[in-house]
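User: Before I run my own analysis I want an independent prediction to cross-check against. Here's the chain; please return only the structure tokens and, at the end, one sentence I can use as a sanity check.
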Amino acid sequence: MDGNSLARLLQLKSEYSFDELSKRPIFRIFSTKSEPYSYQSPSRSESLYYIDNTKILELVGTGYGQKIGLDDNSKTWFVELWINKLVIKIWKSPDREWGEIIQPENSGMTTEKWNFLSNEKSYEMFHVEDNNDYGHKWGKNDDSEWKEIWHTRPNSKFLEKYWITRDKKWGEKEGKENNRVWGEKWEETAEFREVTAWNEENERKWGKTEGKKGDFSWNEEWSIENERKFNNKWWSDGPKKWGTKSTVEGVSEAHEEWEEIGSSKKIKITYDDGFGHKTITTEGYGDDYKYKDEFTEDVSTGEMMTQKQGHSGKETWSSIVKQSPGKFYVHNIGQDSNSSWEETWHEESGLKWARKKGNSSAWGSWEEYWKETPGLKECRKWGRKDDEWLEEWKEEPSKKYCRKEQKKDGKIYVQEWNETYEDGKMITKGNFLEDGVTVKEWDDIIIPLQF
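Assistant: Structure tokens:
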């Protein structure tokens, strides 16, 4: 509650209430006379007259005056007093009493207004002078209370309004200082509060919002200046926090998304320079993990690249993928508590090849090489766990070859075979060897059936 406005309102009611003014002699004259008349002397004049259904009595002396009237239609009384330049006016109807005081001063003029209803009261003051106008309003009824404050000076303006009810408060402000214009809005309840502020100066605009409801809170900051636009939003809800951020500068754009829960955090940044170059970077970390993924693209050349690396517990990994028109390249490396691996594959101008190798407690060590060119495919694999093994094969349009070798219990076992295609026939030849000695061989010809 505005204690100063209420105190002044009660003071005005005490000093200038209709009941108090009705004790003045002019009321006795008004109540005892009904016929119009006019009297005038060098120092005083007195007149009673009617305007429509309104009876008016006016007394005027040197430097002062009094006027009283009653509108018979609306049953509204009015009283006007003036002493030198001070003017006091009061009105009273069956359900309302109101008034105003106009006080000229050396530097300007002050006006006060008040109003009383059965369930509402209000007070208003405004002062006008050269280069300095100011004032305020206040009111209250059974359901709400409100206030307005303002001033106007050279290169400066200010206005504030607020309202209060049983379960809610809200308000707004706006002002101007030289070239800066600003404003603010706010709202508040027992569980909720939000404030929004904005500014504008020359070519720049900026502002922010802050809010809270229980454990949930939100914030926003923004600005616009020339070709640059910036926006930053973030939220929190208990242990969880997250947000977005964006910057547009000319033709370039940068966007950021992030999330945080306890000691874990994830952030994604996207950048586009407006000339066909794009970058997306994603990073995350926590108590026992950390990773980073990065993607780049050049639209003008069609080149793209993705890089990844990180660790989680005892597991680590890294990866790179490159792609451009007619080319493709991948390289992956990984490791955990039981194994490690590495792989590479490449495609370019009709050539495809891949190399893989690894080691694990369950499968031992192994390596693989694979290659493909127009008209030829070939592969070689080898590894060791207790025993050593080797496998290789080649494939051409008219023939295939495969060889497998295993070293076990001090011996070398070999299996190999060939497939050729001649005149619509498939010819298969193969053999098994043990320590270089052939233990089995075969030679088959397969002729497709003709129907």
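Sanity check: The chain has a mean pLDDT of 93.
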